[in-house]
Amino acid sequence: MGGEAEALVGGEGRPRRASVARRESVSASTDNVNWSGTQAHAGHILGSGELKKATDEEDIIESPKGRVTLTLVVTAAATIFGSSFPHGWNTGVLNNPAHLIHQFLNESYMERFGSEPEAWKLDLLWASSVSVYLIGGCGGAFSVGWFANTFGRKKGLLVCHVFSYVAAVLFAFCNLAKSFEMLVLARLITGFGCGAGSGLVPMYLTEIAPVNIRGAMGVLHQFALTCGILTSQCFGLRQLLGREAIWPILLAFIVVPCTVSLCVLPWFPESPRYLLVNKQQDKEAEKALKRFRGMDDVSADMEEMRKENEMQKKEKKWTFGQLFKNNHLRLPLLLVSALAMCQQLSGINVVFYYSNGIFLSAGIPPEMVQYANIGTGLVNVVMTGISVPLMEKSGRRLLLLGGMVVMIVSAGGLTAALNLHDKFTWMSYLSVVCLIVFVVGFAIGLGSIPQFIGAELFKQGPRPPAMSFAGLLNWLCNFIVGITFPSMQVRTHTAASSQQLLDYGAVP
Questions:
Q1: What is the pTM of this model?
Q2: Is 283 exposed, middle or buried (0-12, 13-18, 19+ CB in 10 A)?
Q3: How many Å separate Cα 324 from the centre of its chain?
Q4: Rounded to 5 degrees, what are φ and ψ at 253?
Q5: DSSP state of 8
Q6: Which string of DSSP letters, residue by residue, matches 297-309?
Q7: CA triplet 215, 217, 218: central angle to 5 degrees?
Q8: Distance separating alpha carbons of residues 76 and 83, to the nearest angstrom
């Protein structure tokens, strides 16, 4: 994957040389599965600065460059605010009011069964409330193709908002009804909607954008997601919505960005590629392109989409069985799958799901924990923006290895700080620093590279099943981390110091 990497695995399993300057426009496949947590699919990004020039001239398409127009900006803003932002919001929203939700789960359990739940049952309810979102997201992600082809890209996004509205109603009344089942069901439903939406967003954005800015458009989803995490942490402050009587409103707040999207997006065009390729509506596609490009002559874009469509038709349809049996694809498949798993097994989403408990365990004063959470969210947003130019200047391998080293060192420091904070009070603040450095290391490497490396290693044919398989592993690992960490954290309060180090270190 470094400077020596030259192969782009082709449709028949033959090594094919790739190019940084390759101008082939490859749209995000409707069969691709977007990945969960802090990730966004940018499947169209080709080349890395480490791949050599293509020699297959028949595969090169002259892709016209475009400019940023007001229509494009407003459409992109409404799209990511209505779909990517809620995904981030749901990822981080339970963190600050965690103690209130624990209290709600305890009280609703007593109301239902007449006795106080055992500690392990309460931990299981809490972990389920967090992690069931990922189960819904996994189902939604695998439904992306159906939504995209049945409703279209834009309408599919609008349909996904329905799940957020249903979930918001359950969120709003779960405390009043004393029903923890409503909370869990709402998390499952909103997870499905966000899972589908997180696949549709990069697909829609990359199809409406000129080829020269598609990379930047693909990163917008990730940026909005991190902004959603940060905003949910800010609104979750005790001075705002993180209070006992109104925390359900905090969870139900996802209807606000969805409503904005519902009011804005219908006034803007559908994906030109969807109109041309899927619906065979040439005139409507041309009309949509004219609005997005801000010019009357869009013949070059139309020709590019037609050629791309013809190239896509030449690729055979790959199945999972063919993918696994092809010897030439095993190494890139192993690489993509390993990075997908490492992204979640690194434990990054523990920071956004459970950092409240981590900071308390480290001895941070309860009144300061919420601000420590906001600090980690702010670092995540800033580093996501900084990682974009670093990606092209430093290369994938250096950022991956460097980021992992930073994560390992910071995780070791955090483990030491958690074990020594009783002896040295300043260790509490060292744990905050280590956690923030951990987020920095993740953002520059594992945060974004695993999301598009599959698009650089696979051609259009085997790309959908390869990325679908990697996406499944990613969602499953995210779920495993989310459901198991609370019990691991409980053990750190009772086990020996060496065992604490082993348990905590197992997550990253």
A1: 0.73
A2: exposed
A3: 26
A4: -65, -15
A5: E
A6: --HHHHHHHHHHH
A7: 65
A8: 11
- pLDDT the model gives residue 38: 37
What SS3 state is found at 289? helix
Residue of 384 and 76 predicted with greater confidence: 76
Contacts of 1 (CB under 8 A, 6+ apart): 50, 335, 396, 397, 400, 453
Could you report how far apart the first and last alpha carbons of the chain are, in Å? 23
| CB 204, CB 40: distance < 8 Å | no
| b/e map 349-358, b = 16+ CB within 10 Å | bbbbbbbbbb
Beta strands 7-9 and 15-17 are antiparallel
Residue 44's nearest CA partner among 283, 252, 308 is 308
| Paired tokens of 185 | 């069901």
C-alpha neighbours within 13 Å on the C-beta side of residue 233: 30
- Burial state string for 136-147 with b = 16 or more CB within 10 A and e = fewer than 16: bbbebbbbbbeb
**Does residue 255 surpass a pLDDT of 90?**
yes
Give the model's pLDDT for residue 183. Answer: 92
What letter represents residue 140's amino acid? G
